[in-house]
């Protein structure tokens, strides 16, 4: 195949709003004359971040559930410039930036704030390998927030949203036999109803440094004219694996081969992908935290060939003899126990410094005896979920939060929602649908959480009903700790510092038929000198800071004692705040730089026996 040079230029416009508690309006933005040009620059860095270079920055294949051999990683050192938002393509560059790290991050090499009236542009030359009868796709795993792309001056696509992967087909804009120019423009204001999670232009408390521009892997892929762009997988305990292929172009014959440990166990064929393709796995080995068995899938769709995998499992709930509802996995009761996981990093912010770093967090939690992670108002790189699939970690996946929200009444009767304008409501829906579509092949994800507390909570019953219909194979927790509406499967209370649940509020029958959980508790803080984001400021945890490590550990033990009691009263899950410290929060089990564990994984696992028992998983 011929080789051509493409110059890639990307523009990013960042959002900058101070995120607040659920019921509060956003703070007014600082005037342009007084606004800072730099985020807070901490000296904190992880050991993985210290090893990052332009040559090794996120070179891993970014889409583990649909793997093709023909792809090109575009991460590395690019030119960049920050200019007024109405300016055209800059003629001069400000310097070099390391993609895929956002411009505010230390690992980007820039650490500049991007304001709502500015745009950031990126550029680089690259090799491309086009071929007859093939399409060239540009993929961006995350870019915050409004993205438009051109190749050779021809617009090839637009995308709105800052948290999820997207792609553009750039084939028609390429000119054979000569170089090409790829330009991508992204605008981002971190304001209004934008789904931004914990990003803030005024980071403090539970809100963190804003993230602007590209913050996920950028890559090119070659595919046949007729190809699969997505797939979804459903399974049953009897070994039935149902694969739905979403294809582009002319329908083609389908062949799927399933294997386990290198041995073929099933095969299925179909004339095309217009209907689901079923495979029957004999004597299936079911996926669980204790035994995370995965089956490899080799998929042929005409000339399009790629690999995927499936974990056979069923998620559900059951009512016990005491009348209380509990979660099930593979039709057996299971108590969900794990941390609130923010997924922030002192050097990469929303972007982990490396795949190895991201896996370290999961490995620590697994070794500590947790069986669940609540991924909090953030969508991780897709490799995160593939690793949870591989090691056996259940995931509650939050939708990324937006603002404003209604008055926060939690589990009180007569809840309220906030009215969002129709364009914002539609954008929320589009991003929720996109998140489910991108992640629904992962067996590790057992629950969708559309809202956190009352942050941006609107049309709760409609959102809950839509999510249940869109993915009936998983549970729905409509608003973790938020205003309770009778929709979904879960009633979720947040209680700090020690866990608690207002059972008395359900005496009117509002909680009947719902699984009761404590979706957040703990938050016990302990600052570790030399591992703090900002040594000069007050660092905090819920309930005030202990005077010694011994007091900190005893507070954690007390929370476990109370959770064990709640479990006996019908509580089906407990989510502890949190995995790591984050900026000014020092309530992690691990420091922000992952340099010190405040309680070792072995000690945590021993403590957790009273919650999960010897098996660490089932009731």
Verbal overview:
- The chain has 619 residues and is α/β, with parallel strands linked by helices.
- The protein has 2 domains: 4-224, Galactose-binding domain-like (Jelly Rolls), CATH 2.60.120.260; 315-373 and 418-432 and 452-612, Alpha-Beta Barrel (TIM Barrel).
- It is 13% helix and 31% strand.
- It has 7 helices and 35 strands.
- Helix 1 (355-367) runs parallel beside helix 2 (382-391).
- The longest helix is centred in the C-terminal third of the chain and has 20 residues, at 549-568.
- The relative contact order is 0.13.
- Residues 1-32 and 614-619 have low confidence and may be disordered.
Descriptive terms for the model:
619 residues; disordered C terminus; 2 domains; single chain; eight-stranded parallel beta sheet; TIM Barrel; 7 helices; seven-stranded mixed beta sheet; disordered N terminus; 35 strands; 31% strand; alpha/beta; Jelly Rolls
Topology readout:
Blueprint: E1 4-12, E2 71-73, E3 76-84, E4 95-99, E5 118-128, E6 134-140, E7 143-144, E8 146-151, E9 154-160, E10 166-169, E11 180-187, E12 199-200, E13 208-209, E14 213-214, E15 218-224, E16 227-235, E17 240-248, E18 254-260, E19 263-270, E20 277-280, E21 295-301, E22 304-310, E23 315-319, E24 325-329, E25 332-333, E26 336-341, H1 355-367, E27 372-375, H2 382-391, E28 394-398, H3 422-439, E29 445-449, E30 451-452, H4 460-470, E31 475-476, E32 479-480, E33 490-495, E34 515-522, H5 549-568, E35 573-577, H6 601-607, H7 609-612
């Amino acid at each position: 195949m011929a080789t051509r040079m493409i110059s890639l230029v990307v523009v990013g416009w960042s959002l900058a709003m101070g995120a607040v508690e659920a019921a509060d309006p956003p703070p007014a933005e600082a005037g342009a004359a007084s606004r800072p040009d730099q985020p807070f620059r901490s000296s904190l860095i992880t050991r993985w971040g210290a090893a990052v270079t332009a040559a090794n920055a996120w070179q891993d294949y970014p889409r583990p559930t649909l793997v093709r051999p023909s792809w090109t990683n575009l991460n590395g050192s690019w030119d960049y410039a920050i200019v007024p938002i109405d300016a055209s393509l800059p003629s001069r560059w400000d310097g070099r930036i390391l993609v895929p790290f956002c411009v505010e991050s230390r690992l980007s090499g820039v650490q500049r704030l991007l304001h709502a009236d500015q745009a950031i542009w990126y550029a680089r030359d690259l090799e491309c390998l086009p071929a007859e009868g093939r399409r060239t796709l540009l993929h961006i795993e995350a870019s915050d927030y409004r993205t438009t792309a051109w190749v050779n001056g021809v617009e090839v696509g637009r995308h709105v949203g800052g948290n999820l992967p997207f792609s553009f087909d750039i084939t028609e804009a390429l000119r054979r036999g000569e170089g090409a120019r790829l330009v991508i423009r992204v605008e981002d204001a971190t304001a209004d109803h934008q789904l931004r999670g914990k990003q803030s232009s005024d980071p403090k408390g539970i809100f963190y440094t804003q993230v602007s521009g590209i913050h996920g892997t950028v890559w090119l892929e070659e595919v046949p004219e007729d190809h699969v762009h997505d797939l979804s997988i459903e399974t049953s305990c009897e070994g039935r694996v149902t694969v739905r292929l979403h294809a582009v172009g002319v329908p083609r014959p389908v062949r799927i081969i399933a294997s386990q440990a290198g041995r073929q166990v099933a095969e299925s064929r179909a004339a095309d992908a217009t209907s689901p393709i079923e495979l029957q796995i004999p004597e299936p080995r079911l996926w669980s935290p204790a035994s995370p068995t995965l089956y490899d899938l080799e998929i042929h769709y005409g000339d399009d060939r790629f690999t995927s995998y499936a974990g056979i499992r069923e998620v559900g709930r059951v009512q016990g003899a005491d009348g209380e509802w509990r979660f099930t996995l593979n039709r057996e009761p299971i108590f969900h126990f794990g941390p609130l996981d923010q997924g922030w990093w002192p050097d990469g912010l929303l972007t982990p410094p490396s795949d190895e770093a991201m896996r370290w967090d999961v490995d620590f939690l697994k070794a500590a005896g947790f069986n669940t992670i609540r991924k909090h108002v953030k969508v991780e790189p897709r490799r995160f979920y593939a690793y949870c699939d591989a090691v056996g970690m259940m995931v509650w996946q939050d939708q990324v939060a937006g603002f404003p929200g209604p008055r926060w009444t939690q589990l009180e009767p007569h809840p309220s929602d906030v009215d969002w304008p129709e364009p914002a409501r539609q954008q929320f829906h589009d991003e929720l649908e996109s998140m489910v579509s991108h992640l629904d092949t992962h067996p590790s994800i057992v629950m969708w959480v559309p809202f956190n507390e009352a942050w941006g909570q609107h049309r709760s019953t409609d959102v809950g009903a839509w999510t249940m219909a869109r993915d009936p194979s998983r549970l729905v927790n409509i608003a973790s700790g938020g205003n309770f509406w009778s929709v979904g499967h879960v009633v979720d209370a947040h209680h700090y510092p020690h866990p608690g649940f207002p059972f008395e509020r359900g005496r009117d029958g509002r909680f009947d038929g719902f699984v009761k959980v404590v979706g957040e508790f703990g938050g016990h803080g302990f600052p570790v000198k030399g591992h703090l984001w900002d040594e000069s400021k007050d660092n905090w945890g819920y309930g005030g800071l202990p005077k010694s490590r011994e007091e900190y550990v005893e507070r954690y033990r007390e929370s476990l004692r109370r959770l064990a009691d709640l479990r006996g009263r019908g509580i089906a899950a407990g989510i502890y705040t949190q995995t790591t410290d984050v900026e000014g929060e020092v309530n992690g089990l691990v420091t922000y730089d992952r340099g010190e564990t405040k309680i070792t994984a072995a000690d945590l696992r021993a403590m957790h026996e009273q919650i999960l028992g010897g098996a660490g998983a089932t009731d």
